[in-house]
Design brief:
1 helix, Ubiquitin-like (UB roll)
Length: about 70
Amino acid sequence: MNIVLNGTPTTLPSSLSISGLLAHLTMEARRVAVEVNQEIVPRSQHDTHLLAEGDQVELVHAMGGG
């Protein structure tokens, strides 16, 4: 499956959920905000929201510090 991830064309295994994408990228889900096709996807839907061919996905990783 081909998507655009943070502005970069990316090929992924088919039938990935957002949780599957985050696991594939080894990102910690609780520290990431996800937007698919310009709509925020709540964390409660990451397990069930399946990505589709051509989706535009933006991931924003929260950073700690002060």
